[in-house]
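Why this split exists: single-chain examples teach little about how molecules sit against one another. For that reason, every record in the complexes split bundles all components of an assembly together and asks for one structure covering all of them. Below is a record exactly as it appears in the raw files.
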Amino acid sequence: MDNKPVMLIVDDVEINRVVLTQFFQEEYSILEAENGQEAMTIIEGQPVSIVLVDLVMPVMDGFQLLAMMKKNDQYAGIPVVVMTANNDGDSEARAMEMGASDFITKPYNPTIVRCRIRNVMAREEIEWRRVAQVAQNRQLMEMHQRIELDALTGIYNREAFYRRAADMLQGHAKIPYSIVYLDISCFKVINDLFRIETGNLILKTAGFYFSMFVGDTGISARIEADHFVLCVPTDSLDMDKLIAGLDSTIQSLGISHHIHFYAGVYPVDNAFLPVDQMCDRAHMALNRIKGQYMTRYAYYDKGMRDQMIEEQMIVRNMEFALNEGQFGIMLQPMYNLRSKEIISAEALVRWNHPKRQMSPGKFIPIFESNGFIVRLDRFVWEAACRNLRRQIDAGLEVVPISVNVSRLNFYNSDFMDYLLALVKKYDIEPRMLKLEITESAYMDNPHQLIAMVRAFRGHGFPVLMDDFGSGYSSLSMLKDLPVDVLKIDMAFVREVGRSSRAGAIMESIVELGGRLHMDVVVEGVETQEQVDFLDRIGCHDIQGYYFAKPLDEESFMGLIERKQKGE
Ligand code: C2E
Ligand code: CA
Ligand code: CA
C-alpha cells in the first residue's frame, strides 16, 4: 500500500468514474462506489480523505449520503465535493447548505476540477490544524489552570502569583506597582463558630472581590488559608476604597460576626526582588497593625526590615548567650521615703552582649513570643536567690528581692515546684523572694491566676502587681486577686505636675490599697517634685532613678553593707 490519501468517487455512471479517476489517480488512491449505500459501506470500513459524489443516483442519492455523513461525528469531518449537472444552481446551494465543501460541474473541465479539489484539501488541512491547535490549547489551558489556580477561590495560587507577578513587574519596569497582603483577623474563630462552608464562602467571596478589584491591570492570589495577595499599579491603588468595598461585599453575605480584613502594603522599589520577599515585606507591615481595631492597613518601611533582622539576630543568639553567661542581673533598690531605708530590690535582667547594647524592652517581648522567657526568668530567679544567700552569708539583714514573672510561666505545671526547690537549694525563706506579675496573666486565665497567687502566698512568697493601672482590667482584677503590693505604672508618675487627673488617680490608688491592706509602690520616680507629691499623698515606697538606678551586684552589696553599718 502506498501512502497516498484515499479518494472515494461515487457515481452510478461508469464513464464519469473513469474520467475522474484519470484526473486524480496520481495523487490519490481511488475507490469507487455506484451509489450512496455502497459508499457508506466503504467509508465505514476504512479511512477516506475526500469523497466526490454525484447528486442523482439510484438506491441512495448524493443528498442522502451527505446527510448521513454529516450527522455522524466520525465522518462529518470528511470533505465532500458534489458533482452537479450544469445549470443546477438549486442543488448546488442545497448541497452546500448541507455541509458540502464545494461542487464541480459536469462536463468536467480538468483544470477547474483539479483546482477545486486541491483547494478543498488545502482548506481541510488548515481546518484540521486549527482544530488540533484549539484542542491542544484547551488541554494546555486546562492543565495550566489546574496548576495555577487555587481550587477554592479560582484565583491564582501562591506559585502562580510569584511567577506572574515577577513577569508583570519586570515587564513593566516603568510602572510603579504595590504588593498588598491581606489577612482576616481571627478567621479560626469564624471556622469554629460557623460551619466550614461559611468560612469557604467568605474566602470565595473575598477571592472574587479581589479579582474584580485588580481587573486586568493587576493580579490576585490566595497564598494560604485566609491570606491573599494582590499586585496592582500603585497609582490606581486606593486602600480605603479596597477595604471599604471588601467590608461591604463581605457584609452582604449576612454572616452574624464581624469579619475584618487587615492589609499590609509594600510599594515595590526593586522589581527584581524575589516576589516572595516582597510578600514578606507587605506581611511585615500587616503584622504591625494586627490586633488594632481602628487601623486597617499599613505601609512597609525600611525600619521594619531592620527590626526584623534585629529580631532574627536576637533569636539566633539567645541560646548561645544563656550558655555563655552573657545574661546577668542588675538590682534596683526600693526606698522608703520616710526612713530612707532600702526595703527591697528588683532584679532586672541584662544582656551583656559583647558587641551591642541590648535593652530588655527589645529582647523581652521577643522571648515572650517564642517562649524563651521562661528559661530566662528562671535564670534571673536563681541569680536573685544566689544573691539572697550571699547577703545571709555576709551576715547582713536581708533585703528581699523581687523578680519578674512573665505570664508564660503560668502555663508550666511545675512552676510552683520549681520555686520551692529553688528556695530550698539556697536555703532562703520564701518571704525574701517577691514575685512581680502583670495584668496580662490575669487576662489570659483569671481563675488559674487567682489560684496560683493564693498558692504562692500560702507558701510565703509575697506577690506584687506590676505596672498597675496600665491594662484594661485593673479594677475588676483587684476585686478577686489577693496580692500584697500594687506597683503603680510608671506612666502615672511621669504626669505629676502635668496632669492633675493622673495625680488624682494615684491618690485614689494609694487610698484603695490602704483599704484593701495592700502596700503601694511607685516606680519610675526621677524628680524632687514627684517625691514631694508622693509624700503628700501618703505613698512612701519608691523605686526610681531619684534614689538609685539598677546596680550591678557588687555595687548593690556595697551599698547595703554601708547602709547597714550606718555609714
Ligand atoms: P518593669 O518590670 O516595669 O521594670 C522597671 C523598668 O523601669 C526597668 O527597666 C528599670 O530599669 C526601669 N526604671 C526604674 N526606675 C526608673 C526611672 O526612674 N526612670 C526610668 N525611665 N526607668 C526606670 P528595664 O530594666 O529596662 O526593664 C524593662 C522591662 O523589661 C521591665 O519592666 C520588665 O517588664 C522587663 N524585664 C526586665 N527584667 C526581666 C526579667 O528578668 N524577666 C521578665 N519577664 N521581664 C523582665
Ligand atoms: Ca517589674
Ligand atoms: Ca513595672
